[in-house]
Each structure stands twice: as C-alpha cells, then as structure tokens.
Amino acid sequence: MENKYKFEASITEDMSLPDKFDSIQALNIAYAAMAFTLEKHLPGFSHDLLTTLDKVYEQNEGLSGQLAIAQLASRVKFLTSE
C-alpha cells in the first residue's frame, strides 16, 4: 500500500521553483519538524540538539549567520518543548 500525502497534489512537472526566501523558510520549518519527530522516537534528542545549536551559536559570535542559528534553534525549542 502506497502512502498518499496532501502535498503531492501541488507537485507538477512544470512548476517553478520557489524564491530563496521561501526555500530557506521551508528548510527551517522542515528542520524543526524533523527534530520534533526525532524527539518523539528518541526522547532527549532535542536537548542534545539544542545544546549543540547553542555551542554553534556561540562559535558564530559576531558573524551574520549567528541570528539565523538563533532563530532556527528557537523554532526547534518551540516545537519540542512540552
């Protein structure tokens, strides 16, 4: 039995690619959703991930990507917190 998903109705062979902003947002959301799913199957995963993201955030102090790391980590924390 093949799984059917709602998103499949939007996919066509001639569809255009999303712009950069939408692509980045989709990747951020998918990353947080993946963390949520892994936390359900591996309790404690999100704590380890957030600890690592916090270290990466510190390592990028003063760089332009630091705030993007903070936003992504915040999404993960929101989705994986009880």
Quick overview of this protein structure:
The chain has 82 residues and is an all-alpha fold.
Describe the structure.
With 82 residues, this protein is mostly helical. The protein has one domain (20-80). It is built from 3 helices and no strands. Helix 1 packs across helix 3 (66-80) and helix 2 (45-59) packs antiparallel against helix 3 (66-80). The protein starts with 19 loop residues before the first helix and ends with a helix.
Radius of gyration: 16 Å
Question: Please, how many domains?
Answer: 1
Q: How many E-type strands?
A: 0
Name the average pLDDT: 95
Q: How much helix, percentage-wise, in residues?
A: 55-70%
Judged by helices, strands and strand pairing, the structural class is mainly alpha
Strand content: under 5%
The main sheet comes to: none
Span between N and C termini? 34 Å
- Give the CA-based shape: flat
Low-confidence region ranges: none
Number of helices: 3
Order of helices and strands: HHH
Keywords:
single chain, 82 residues, mainly alpha
Task: Give the topology.
Layout: H1 20-41, H2 45-59, H3 66-80
